[in-house]
Amino acid sequence: xxxxxxxxxxxxxxxxxxxxxxIDPAALPVTxxxxxxxxxRWITARPADNQPRGEWWKAFNDPVLDGLVARxxxxxxxxxxxxxxxxxxxxxxxxxxxxxxxQLGVGASASRAGGVASANGxxxxxxxxxxxxxxxxxxxDLFGKLANAEKAASLDAQARAxxxxxxRLLVQADVAQVYFALRGLDEERAxxxxxxxxxxxxxxxxxxxxxxxxxxxxxxxxxxxxxxxTEAEAFAIDRRRAELEHALAVxxxxxxxxxxxxxxxxxxxxxxxxxxxxxxxxxxxxxVAAAQRTVLASNARVGVAQAAWFPDISLTGAAGYAxxxxxxxxxxxxxxxxxxxxLSLPIFDGGRREAGVNFASAERDASVxxxxxxxxxxxxxxxxxxxxxxxxxxQSGAQERAVTSATRxxxxxxxxxRNGYVSQLDLLLAQRSELxxxxxxxxxxxxxxxxxxxxxxxxxxxxxxx
Length: 466
Prior knowledge:
GO cellular component, one term: plasma membrane
Largest sheet: 4 strands, antiparallel
Keywords: Lipoprotein, Membrane, Palmitate, Signal, Transmembrane, Transmembrane beta strand
Distance between the termini: 61 Å
Number of domains: 1
Protein name: Outer membrane protein OprM
Membrane topology: Lipid-anchor
CATH class: Mainly Alpha
CATH architecture: Up-down Bundle
Shape: elongated
Strand content: 5-15%
Number of strands: 4
Radius of gyration: 37 Å
CATH topology: Outer membrane efflux proteins (OEP)
GO molecular function: efflux transmembrane transporter activity
């Protein structure tokens, strides 16, 4: 009995030597205490990556945007692919979990043999052996190989779930940013069209004055040039709008040939977002959470690879019936059974197990580096959008002052031109300046909306208290 138990006792002793290695803290990123671009207006929020992102786009109070995001959630191909990847990882987890349970199966066989020598040397006559039974096997996971494999699969599934949330967030943000860019172009297009109409009226007036001999032909040529150039700008805006509309069609999962977004007044609200501290961003962003779980999964696989150095221990059992006559197969006298234990330990494998540990360790080091990079990118994204919003707010104020001054300049130049105090060129320059500043004002407004969406994405979604 002592000899029989010796391998099991040795295995239990060795089991205490198997531990998953710790991750070097020095390889992980350092979390700053505050955003460089933050100020006293920013408050702390406390959501986490496994909490719902919330319908953050509804803060813009735009029903058209709400509908587009809803269509993208259902039809976007990228989200569908991410959901399929999550289903795959969950199936793999189910498979890894199944390896830790006893395996039970049933089977039947029939074989016929002859010519086998008996004890006295005479050949036995041909005979048939029929068997029916059940087989039971169970691998004893003394060294954590199966447990670590299941843990790694579970972490992979969690990472895939986070990546699905990240994909959904990215698609929602892309829809919102493209939508706001398109609405900005609608504003610009309406502005340029009104200016074309104004220029055409001015051209008609100049032509009448030319026919009356009040102005030179040069004034007519200048007016015609301004009309044509502004019309060309309108066509350029139309082209850009068509491209954005087609991009929006892809995001909502519809053919560009049938998708259409009509021009409408831009009355979207611009919410003020309270940003969280950096630790909140790390807990909130699903891509950072996915990278972190990938690190833990790769570390668990190092434990799986290390367990290959220790023996595999399996218990087996079989019970059923065996008979040379098929009619007697289920008689009590034909019953048969057997139990056993198997211990296997490779002695020489040419370095295969060592290579497996080295591969798993390198994979873990790579995932740690990717996690560090993802964290740094998260901070960069937030800082980018915070600085963008701050500078855009200052730019918007300055641009509004420029629009006011340009509008006043056009009014004065028009009055002076009609009274003959300035040339037509002075009036055209004033009108050009006003148009350029008004378009720039619209572009700044569009950029503010897009930067707000960018901050939502950088923060990992909704910003409400949990």
